[in-house]
Amino acid sequence: MSSLLRYCALLIVSVLLFAGFGCTQKKLDDGKIPITTSSEEARGLFLQARDLQDKFLYHESRGVLEQAVALDPDFALAYRDLAFAQSNAKHFFEYFNKACALTDKASEGERLWILGDKAGKNDDPVKQKEYFLQLVKKYPKDERAHHVLAKYCFDQQEYDEAIAEFRKAIEIAPDFSPPYNLLGYANRGIENYPEAEKAFQKYIELNPNDPNPYDSYAELLLKMGRFEESIQSYRKALAIRHDFTPSHMGIAANWVYQGKHKEARSQLQEFLKIAKDNGQRRAAYFNKAVSYVDEGKFEEALTALNERYALAERISDTVAMARDIADIACILFEQGQYDDALSKYKTSIKLFLDSDLSDEIKRNTQRNFLYNESRIAMKKGDFDMAKAKCDSFFEQVMVAENSAQIRLSHELAGMIALEERDYDRALDEFQQGDQKHPYNLYRIALAYDSKGDHQKAKEFYTKAARFYPLLDHLVLNINYAFARQKAEKMLGGK
Predict the structure, then answer these.
(1) Of 29, 172, 173, 312, which sits most exposed with the smallest number of CB within 10 A?
(2) First to last CA, the chain
(3) Domain 1-131 class?
C-alpha cells in the first residue's frame, strides 16, 4: 500500500474505488455498483481516473476528475474520488462535502459507499461498518464492494476478516490487483511474512509496469529489516516513475533505520526539488522531522515541522495547521516541556473547533484533548486530575464506540498505573491497547522490566525497536521515533 494517501493531510486513508458500469441513462444488471452520471464522456473520464488511482497516481487523476465534474456537476462519485485526489485537507473536505450533498442523485451503492466514507471521517466505525456490510449484501458480485469492506476490517486490525474479504474479491475477479496489495499488508499484520510476500509478488506480476507493487513489496522488506533489498525494490519503482513520492520516503526510512540520518535527509532534499505540490512538500518536511527525532535532534525536528506548518498556513489549511501544532506539542511533551506542550495542544484544538469540520470530528478531537490533558497531568504528578481526565475519556469513547480510542484509553490507564508502580495493572491495561503500536509495546517492556522479568522485557523492547514502519505512518510517525530511540537504549543495556 503506497504511503501517498497519508500525505493528504493525514486524513485520507482509503484508495478503494467503485466498479460497475451504467449511468442514469443505461444500467446493466451485472451485479456491479452502478456509476451514476448524465454524461458518457464524464463516465469515461471517471473510469480513466479510477484506473490511475488504482495505481496510486492521485496527482495525475486530479485533472481528469476535474474535467468529469465540469461535464456533470451532479456526479457524486466523481466528487468523492476528486476529494481523495487532493493533497491537502482543505480541498479534500471541499469536494467530499459536495459528494455527500449529491448522494440523493446517486445509485444506492454509491450512496452507501459515500456515507460509509463519511462515517469513517466522523470517527464512527460502527456506522461505517453498517454501511459497508449493506454494500456487500446489495452487491455480492462486486469485487470492489468486498474490497472496501476488507479495507475497513484491515484498518480496524481485524486481519482475519480482512483476509477473508480480500479473497472473496479475488475469487470474483482474479486479475483485479488492489486486493493482492492489501492482502499482503494484512498478512504482514499477523506476521505471516511468507503469505505476504506471495501476495505482493502476485501484485507485481499483475502490474509489472506500475511503481506501487514494487513500493509495497519494498515496505514488507523494510518491515522485515531487509534494508538493502528494500531499497532495491524502491529503486525499481522509481525507475518506472522517478517522482513516485512513497518510494522516496521509503528509501529515507531505510536509511534512518540503519542510522544513516544524513543520507535519509539527502534523499528527502532531492525529492523536494521535484515535488509537484505542497502536499508532497509537507510529506518531505514531516519525514525530515521524524529523522531528526530518531537522531535525538529535537530542535531541528521542530524547525522542520514549522516549515511544514508554513506551507499549510499559506493556503489557510486550518486542519493541517492544527495537526502540525499537535505534532510540535508531541515533541515538547517528550522533552518534558509539559506546560508548553499543553499550550500547543490548546492552540491545536481551537483551530479544529473553529474550522468547518463536522460536529462529529470536533467531538472526536475534544475527546483526544482529554487524553493529552491526562498525560500532562500525570507527568506533572497530579494523579487525581490525570485519573479524572482518563475516566472521562474512557466514558466518552465507550459511548462513541470508537475502537481505536478505546484501545488508546486502555493505554492511558496503563501509563498512569506504570507511573504509580502498579505494574500488574499496567500490563493488563497495555495488553488491551494497540498491539501494533510500538510505543505501547515499549511501555509493556518497561512494566515487565520493573517486575523483574527481564527476558520478557527484552522481547518487547526488541518488538518496539524493530517495528520499522514508514516514517510518515498516520498513527506511529513521531511517536515511533521516540519509542525506537528509548527501546534501543534499553536493549543496549540488556
Answers:
(1) 29
(2) 35
(3) mainly alpha
